[in-house]
Amino acid sequence: MDINEKIYQAVQEFKGLDHLIHFSLKYTRTTSVLKTVLEKIRNIEEYLISALYIYSKEKDSTLKDENVIVLRSRIVCDYFKDDILTSNHEFYLKVKKLIRCESKCSGDFRKHVGLTFNFEEGDYVFDLKEAMEYYKKTRKIFRYILDKMEVKPFQIDFEDLTI
What we know:
Strand content: 5-15%
Number of helices: 5
Structural class: mainly alpha
Helix content: 55-70%
Number of strands: 3
Order of helices and strands: HHHHEEEH
Number of domains: 1
Mean pLDDT: 89
Strand order of the largest sheet: 1-2-3
Low-confidence stretches: none
């Protein structure tokens, strides 16, 4: 895939995330929707990381070929030496960790719906408020990465989305 295909896929995933945040979570409020939010964010991050990696390879052909997405993310961080991308790398790792971990449902089908993850450092609750914060962070990094690559998203109407 090329950069445009990766960005197109990220946009499609973002449309799904946008719908989950503004409609599904508003009316459904179930832990399965929260899990899907995390999966959508992970997918968006992976498409954006891949696009940035391809962009970096086009700029510097001496960069190491890598297929593992976590390593691609690290290469991109090292290539750009950018604090925002490094912070995003940590955010991506956190989302992946949450998806892999066992969780307990709390308040399913209620106002205070959430997922509780047990870590050695303590419990972490992913609730509606956290989902909205993750959404905002994903939207912000999406814009940042598009600007970083100087990409004008090929006939995609971003006005319909809240990126």
